[in-house]
Write a structure and sequence with these properties.
about 70 residues, mainly alpha, single chain
């Protein structure tokens, strides 16, 4: 139990050091990068989903079923 408390204290101290005021700009930059990556992923998912649905509908039709709407 004591080693768990020591590990937890060290973890919290590490987080406290990482959240120092001079590192705030870096956190904002990382947040902006994550947001931009999310936008790129969302922009790619739409056309990719349509293409994959077309492929599955083709396979379904070839097997004699009814394609999804």
């Amino acid at each position: 139990m004591t080693s768990l408390m020591v590990s937890m204290t060290a973890f919290i101290a590490g987080i406290k050091d990482r959240l120092a005021p001079e590192k705030g700009a870096t956190m904002v930059e990382y947040g902006i990068m994550v947001a931009l990556i999310a936008v790129v992923v969302l922009a790619a998912v739409g056309p990719l989903g349509t293409t994959i649905q077309g492929l599955f509908n083709g396979v379904t039709t070839s097997l004699g079923g009814t394609p999804a709407p």
